[in-house]
Amino acid sequence: MQPNACVPDYRQFQQRIGTGRVIVVTPAAYSTDNEVTLDAIAQLGSQARGVTVVHPTVTDAELTRYPLGQRGSRGATGPASTSMMRCGWYMSGSRSANAICATSGSLATRRASS
């Protein structure tokens, strides 16, 4: 098991390997509690981006309250996916082929009208 590490530890690691940007992902065990991810993004600054986990009923207003470093969410479906598209977020998750086919027309229509 990896010991806990803080942002200064990660910055030192970045210096060693020569990177500057970072993506912080909310672990599945945290469910929709994104506080640790948001705190890390705030500490890491403008070179950090985040991927959160949002509740399927998240609204556009709730998404706009996330910091500018947020770019997407894992596992969101239903109304959340529509809100994320409107806010310019990307979505990552696993869905059945039937579910993808059922929404592909609406996704293509939204993209074409953007």
Walk me through the structure.
The chain has a single domain (7-113), classed as Metal-dependent hydrolases (TIM Barrel, Alpha-Beta Barrel). 45% of the residues lie in helices and 15% in strands. The protein contains 5 helices and 4 strands. Helix 2 (35-44) links the parallel strand 1 and strand 2 (48-52). It is elongated, with a radius of gyration of 16 Å. Residues 107-114 have low confidence and may be disordered.
Order of helices and strands: HEHEHEHEH
Secondary structure: number of strands: 4
Using only C-alpha atoms, the radius of gyration works out to 16 Å
- The rounded distance between the terminal residues' Cα atoms is 45 Å
CATH superfamily: Metal-dependent hydrolases
Going by CATH, the architecture would be Alpha-Beta Barrel
Strand order within the widest sheet?
Answer: 1-2-3-4
Low-pLDDT stretches: 107-114
Q: Kindly state the mean pLDDT as a whole number?
A: 76
Number of helices: 5
> Quick one: biggest sheet?
4 strands, parallel
Classification by helices and strands: alpha/beta
Q: What is the fold-level CATH name, i.e. the topology? A: TIM Barrel
**Helical fraction:** 40-55%
CATH class value: Alpha Beta
| Percent of residues in β-strands | 5-15%
User: What is the domain tally?
Assistant: 1
